[in-house]
Amino acid sequence: MGNYDLQNPWFLLLLLLLPLMWWYRNRKVTDFHSKIRFPHAGAVPGIQNYKSVLLRYLPLLRYVGLAALIIALARPRLVLKEEEVKAEGIDIILVMDLSSSMLARDFKPDRLTVSKRMAQDFVDKRSYDRIGLAVFAGESFTQSPLTTDHRIIKEFLESLESGMLEDGTAIGMGLASAVNRLKESESESKVVILLTDGVNNSGYIKPMTAAEIAKELKVKVYTIGVGSMGNAVSPISRRNDGTYVFGTSRVEIDEELLTEISKLTGGRYYRATNEVNLQQIYDEIDRLEKTEIDVSVFKRYSDEFRVFLCIGLVFLFLEWLLKNTLLRTIP
Question: Does 33 reside within a domain?
Fold first, then answer.
């Protein structure tokens, strides 16, 4: 039916009754029916007028009206939009370091704020992915399981703050939390993006143990070391009121460990020394992680049965009105 789609197509079988009704109405009168002939002017040429012509075709209004009502029962829908999308969809867990060193000011205003913003921009680009979020410091937990609701992921990223967890850097715990969320995933491509600025010094799961589990579950791990080279203004102590005391300290990132983790799982290690560099890293990961999935067809519909219902009722009413007024006949 072109751009129309039927929800109850079986009702169209009722249309087959209309020819039978027409035949029944116009069947030849058999000898069993009594008939009385009256004189008429039908045989006189040129005596017909518009009423006699309309009367002949008046029953058509009934059949057109019934046909429209039957189509209304079939619930036609107009396809307003049909779009075929060949999308890329994978499962990704973002792992963010929330240790106090993420407040270092070698990024403006600090590492954590820039890292959250870059992660949010990355989420915006992954329209068809399921994305989750895990965080760690001295311990770790899952902030959000895998979801296609990217709005909530961005809200969780925005709400992240240093101090939410016991201070420290438990890289193994953070990676293990992410891998645990991906173990039930049926996606052909499973990815962890782990961002940290320190050296593993907490947690009861060793980073390489978590990496071995990731490899076993075919989870690819991209690691990002955040921090400038040399020294940076970072928190060096904390006052009784919870505020941090800042001072110059040496930037220490266990690049060897992060490289080993990513190499073991088939990912890559990146070092981000400034905001532009971090943006380029996320862009590169976005280009690398493309997995084509089945074509999805999105359709928008508009129910049109009311149109056919109105047409049917109008035709039936018109037949009744003409039959009892302008085209009224003597029984």
Answer: no
Query: 5-32: string of b/e by CB count within 10 Å (b at 16+)?
Result: bbeeeebeeeeeeeeeeeeeeeeeeeee
Q: Yes or no: say if 272 and 278 are a contact pair by the CB < 8 Å rule.
A: yes
Number of domains in the chain: 2
Q: How confident is the model at residue 31 (pLDDT cuts 50, 70, 90)?
A: very low
| 202 touches 139 (CB < 8 A) | yes
Kindly report, residue by residue over 256-294, the tens digit of the pLDDT.
999 999 999 999 999 999 999 999 999 999 988 766 555
* Domain residue limits at 218: 90-290
- Do both 177 and 68 map to the same domain? no
Does residue 260 sit within a domain? yes
Burial 263-298 (b: 16+ CB within 10 A, else e): eebebbbbbbbebeebbebbeebeeebebeeeeeee
- Of 74, 63, 68, the residue nearest 18 (C-alpha): 63
pTM over 0.90: no
Say whether both 21 and 141 belong to one domain: no
Burial of 322 (C-beta count, 10 Å sphere; 0-12/13-18/19+): middle
Domain identity same for 96 and 229: yes
119, part of any domain: yes
Judgement on whether residues 126 and 184 belong to the same structural domain of the protein: yes
Q: Band of the pLDDT at 30, cuts 50, 70, 90?
A: very low
pLDDT tens, position by position, 143-183: 999 998 999 999 999 999 998 899 999 999 999 999 999 99
Both structure tokens of 239:
């006052």
Closest among 47, 144, 29 to 92, alpha carbons compared: 144
Residue 323 falls inside a structural domain: yes
**Residue 202 DSSP one-character state:** -
67 with 178, same domain? Answer: no
The pLDDT of residue 35: 53
DSSP 3-state of 49: coil
